[in-house]
Amino acid sequence: MAGVDEVEVVVAHSERATLRVGDVFLKVDGNQANIEVEVEAIALAPVPTPEILWRKPPVLAIAAVPGKALGVLGKPSTASPAAWAAAGAAIRTLHEAPLPPWPSKKNPDEIAADLDTECEWLITNGFLPADLVTRNREIAQAAFRPWTPRFTHGDLQITHIFTAEDQVTGIIDWSEASQGDAMFDLATLTLGHEERLDQVLAGYGTDVDLDAIRAWWSLRSLLASHWLIEHGFDPNTPGCEFDVLRARMKH
């Protein structure tokens, strides 16, 4: 990093921060369990991942991966259909890999309880109309069905998959990896980019539960909005979580 004179704050809030210094990302996390999961998941995942340069708690240094992220939430993606299909194929490879030795952080009962709490908070505080929240709560119910645990990334946002020349060059941010629901990964990737789902499935395969994916669009948006608001983010930005919830009213 010799000669680097600029530090970019990629994300920063009360729980963690990520800084970029040249071609190195420095992840600072007060919860060392998250760092431990990230290190082990990167070692186990059979897909392109970033190189871990060093670790000195509470900091983890990771090399930047080549290529460009598929996009960002709230803006149209300029990535090609082939790049989205390549992402789908990489996710399939991950989901078919041997399970990591640790389970999911939350069980369905805990998620359902959190969902009830967050729905009430959104209505009580006037962030969303009651009918919109109620309708999305009904759609979200389809996520609570029997599913076979897979090796899941757990936070597969569009900004976390990088491609170049229509090939996946790296998948980053593995702190939420676990034995999870494969449909959650697919829903997280296509959140706010529903038009790209068919392209993802062209690489992933069609043996998926579309109702569960749609349910996770609602469920993730309902669960995340309170946290986003309290940490200085705006889920009401065009194309983001509130628009995802509004879109469900049209279907």
UniProtKB/TrEMBL annotation:
Record SUPFAM superfamilies: Protein kinase-like (PK-like)
Ranges where the Aminoglycoside phosphotransferase domain occurs: 45-212
InterPro entries, alphabetized: AGP_Transferase, Aminoglycoside_PTrfase, Kinase-like_dom_sf
Cross-referenced Pfam families: APH
Superkingdom of this protein's organism: Bacteria
TM helices/strands, residue ranges: none
Protein name: Phosphotransferase
Organism listed in the record: Kribbella ginsengisoli
